[in-house]
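For the sake of transparency, this paper describes our internal protein records without simplification. The record that follows is passed on verbatim for readers who wish to inspect the format:
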Amino acid sequence: MSFLGIDLGTSGLRLLLIDEAGDVLATAERGYATQRPHDGWSEQFPSDWEAALESAVAEMRKECPAFSELRGIGVSGHMHGAVVLDTAGDVLRPCIMWNDTRAHVEAEALDKVDGVRDLSGNIVFAGFTSPKLVWLAKHEPEIFDQVETVMLPAGYMNFALTGDRVADMSDSAGTSWLDVAGRDWSDSLLSASGMARSKMPKLVEGSQHAGVLRADIAERWGVGPDIVVAGGAGDNAAAACGIGALNDGVGFVSLGTSGVVLCARDRCAPSPATAVHTFCHAVPEHWYQMGVMLSATDSLNWWGRITGRSPAELSGALGTSLRAPGAGQFLPYLAGERTPHNDTSLRGSFGGLSHDTKQEDMTQAVLEGVAFGLRDSLEALRSVGAAPQRLSAIGGGAKSEYWVALIATVFNLPLDLPAGGEFGAALGAARLGICAATGADVAEVMTPPDVDRTVMPEMHLVDAYEAAYQRFRERGPS
């Protein structure tokens, strides 16, 4: 038997095929574009996601015979996006993405509505789904009037695969429509943004059976009938499943487009004022909390565009031995910030530059600024009682030895690098597919991967980086 994990990322789609033991059989990737028609806007065409999936599956089928033994599928996706469908199931407009900030005014208004934070467990961030629909009603009423169902990106991919309008708990927790403690849509939260339960997909747990692969797709893919599709998960919940972060205090730091510090929790104890996100986990009776920064590897990508060098070239120029903190400072707020500031208007800047400043010094400042921004999220998590003793390091940025050593030192925590490559959310999605298709116990499936190596803090630099972090806080918006 084989099981497929589909990770719908911000910049591209990744497939991961595993067997029932969890061993990797094949991978495939495809990219797609993001449209930015106006300042602060970020949109994608769901049809591009589907085309990427078909192309990647065709490659995987050709290269891996075990694909024909497919039994279960799990989908993870970037959270908070709004895909609006009409009665026939047609997409009415491009998906408004998680990093789209056009609805910041609507988010501020919803956040002030009595009881919204208490029920949703979170601040209404501008990137969440609820304010996007308020914006749509105000600015595109002819589209809003046709909306039959609001789907999240991963949920839309499930819909494309099965024809069923379903959403999982972890993804839905980032809409500001879900009672996160009660794990159900809230009529009062929906009403606050002019929505109704009838416009919402059916809720399932991420590890549950959510539908069956459409017969025409099964025939095209060359697989048998009755392929089970799991409820799936938001990308961070799926990544937590991939590294076995189910129990309280177990978590990871993710260096992706955005940056995340996440800890699993055994109860729902939100603290919205801290800008810590409190969401349902992808498996029943579990939750997680995380701090989020909006521009992690995106900061290095931006610097790469400015300098005409690849991110790998920039970070590689620093070597692998961690340097003492640089004189330059970088505030990584290129698109505003969530944790701990919750301010879409913040913008990045360099400081501490002189005639002696070189390109390498500015690269070091960018990496340090992101590390300090992630430390802000770690401190916010500690303020709500999450106390990780070590974290896994995942995401594309974790391929940089220098950056991982820097973060370990800024955090003063060991960072574990998973063995056999880093498959993150795609692995978690495939594991959810196993549970849904076979009924396997989630605790037996969502186990930690082997650790390739552990990066320890550079103890002789911990104090210096602690002082540099405090200077970052003094210079920053806090």
